[in-house]
Design goal:
By secondary structure, the chain is α/β, with parallel strands linked by helices. Helices cover about 50% and strands about 15% of the residues. The protein has a five-stranded parallel beta sheet with strand order 2-3-1-4-8, with helices on both faces. Strands 6-5-7 form a three-stranded antiparallel beta sheet. A hairpin with a 5-residue loop joins strand 5 (about 125) and strand 6. The longest helix is centred in the C-terminal third of the chain and has 15 residues, at about 160-175. It is globular. It starts with a strand and ends with a helix. Bound molecules: adenosine monophosphate. Adenosine monophosphate (AMP) binds near residues 52, 57, 85, 158 and 167. Adenosine monophosphate (AMP) binds near residues 31, 52, 56, 64 and 167.
Length: about 210
């Protein structure tokens, strides 16, 4: 199964992708995580991506398409995958078509902007393994440390108020038009992304099994 999870930053794409990928036994691929890892290890691509990420802009298509292409060529992707954060615009969607990737379904996780702003402001991430948390909705049982690896919880550099507003604008201008694109292809399923994480997973699984 090849799936795309679409939605604004903070809509819960990553959280749902991490849960659903285990249920479907396929990897969840987050281009945001791939880019952050590259930035952390200081690779050429990571250094080039840094200024875009920190300004809340999209990293140039050719760079992110190459990263995605390399990732889906790995053996663990042979039975499918969930794409979280890719494609982010029409030209990335067209790149998937050119690679011969046939997407089974696009799950659009819908969350109003005011809730997105509140969520992103309270979001925390493990500085070591990248696991996601939220100060009120998904706190770590280990306080300021990651439940999984004990790493320190940090605020992402692009989760500051100004960058959050810029990222939401980029989402509405460039990514949201993909809804029409995949709706026209008969592949779009819409799920409300507000409420309990487990309930949202049930709705996602229901549309995938329909
Ligand atoms: P995310 O973790 O998905 O919110 O992504 C964090 C940042 O990484 C974004 O704000 C972009 O700067 C960059 N990024 C992630 N995925 C893409 C993509 N598909 N195309 C361009 N930039 C991306």
């Amino acid at each position: 199964m090849k799936l795309i999870f679409l939605g604004a930053p903070g809509a819960g794409k990553g959280t749902q992708a991490e849960i659903v990928c285990k249920l479907l036994s396929v990897p969840a691929i987050s281009t945001g995580s791939i880019i952050r890892d590259a930035m952390k290890s200081g690779t050429e691509a990571g250094l080039a991506a840094k200024e875009y990420v920190e300004a809340g802009n999209l990293v140039p298509d050719e760079m992110v398409i190459k990263m995605l292409q390399d990732r889906i060529a790995l053996p663990d992707c042979k039975n499918g995958y969930i794409l979280d954060g890719f494609p982010r615009n029409l030209s990335q969607a067209q790149a998937l078509d050119r690679m011969g990737v046939i997407i089974d379904m696009v799950v659009d996780i819908e969350v109003p902007d005011d809730i997105i702003l509140e969520r992103l402001a309270g979001r925390r991430m493990c500085g070591k393994c990248g696991a996601g948390y939220h100060i009120t909705h998904k706190p770590s049982a280990k306080g300021e440390k990651c439940e999984l690896c004990g790493g320190p919880l940090i605020t992402r550099e692009d989760d500051t108020p100004q960058v959050i507003r810029d990222r939401l604008k980029v989402y509405h201008d460039q990514t949201e038009p993909l809804k029409d694109h995949y709706h026209a292809a008969g592949k779009l399923a819409v799920v409300a992304g507000t409420g309990d994480i487990g309930d949202i997973t049930k709705m996602v699984m229901a549309v995938l099994e329909a």
